[in-house]
Amino acid sequence: MFHFDSGMAYLSETGFQITTVGIPLLLAVTLHEVAHGAVADRLGDHTARYLGRLTLNPFPHVDPFGTILLPLMLYFSHTGLMFGYAKPVPINPLNMANPRRDMAIVAMAGPLSNLLQALVYMSLLHSFLGIVMTTSWFQSGEAGETVARLIITLFRMGILVNVVLFVFNLIPLPPLDGGRVLTGFLPAGGAAFMNRIEPWGMWILFGLILLDPYLGVLSRLVWPEMDSLTNLLMVWATKPGVS
């Protein structure tokens, strides 16, 4: 039998979790794409600027599948992986002085923006935990405890989401940023090979994810790096005296 109170509690908790993951994820993928466009703009390609993509307004960057459906599917599948992406910023490498080198720099800007965001969330979490420990309002009533839980969870999810995007995007497989960075520094033959497999890159990646219980490629090479970096930032955030 369905109990109204328990049903509402479930919906409330689900809404809480979606909110505390969705806000950092939306900000993370927006700044990721803006970083690509801003660096390309500095290197001579103003395509993103002309198309209005150098904006912090998330709506021009939203991809219906990558920003909304995929994260929701991952959330409700209880895989433990939270990932998403925004609409790629259009870039024309022919407008750059050194297209191969400059495209590698542009590609690296995205993951670095996520690393920077993770560090910012770490600092915010550390500072806020100090405030909570020294402010009675956060400890003396349901309202204060709820607000504290919301903010702490937002900052923790901000660290986690950005670490996932940072590490995942460094996988050297185009069209991921790591693949494009690698392409920029390979000899001509290697770069040509990477360009040929790029249309199949996402299918290869999905295959690696689905087959990981059997192949263990991501389990050995990617997930441990995510866990190590996340744990390191969480320790720094919660350690007294670290800022």
From TrEMBL:
Molecular function GO labels: metal ion binding; metallopeptidase activity
Q: How does it sit in the membrane?
A: Multi-pass membrane protein
Compartment annotation: Cell membrane
Cofactor names from the entry are: Zn(2+)
Gene Ontology cellular component annotations, sorted alphabetically: plasma membrane
Asked if the keyword Nucleotidyltransferase belongs to this entry, the reply reads no
Keyword set includes Transport:
no
Transmembrane segment boundaries: 65-86, 118-138, 150-171, 200-223
Q: Which residues form the Peptidase M50 domain?
A: 23-202
Extract one GO BP annotation from the record: proteolysis
Q: What is its main location?
A: membrane
Pfam families in the record: Peptidase_M50 (PF02163)
InterPro entries referenced in this protein's UniProt entry, alphabetically: Metallopeptidase_M50B (IPR052348), Peptidase_M50 (IPR008915), Rip2-like (IPR044537)
Annotated organism of origin: Leptospirillum ferriphilum
So which domain of life are we looking at?
A: Bacteria
Protein name listed in UniProt: Membrane metalloprotease
Homology family: Belongs to the peptidase M50B family.
Q: Which UniProt keywords apply?
A: Cell membrane, Hydrolase, Membrane, Metal-binding, Metalloprotease, Protease, Transmembrane, Transmembrane helix, Zinc
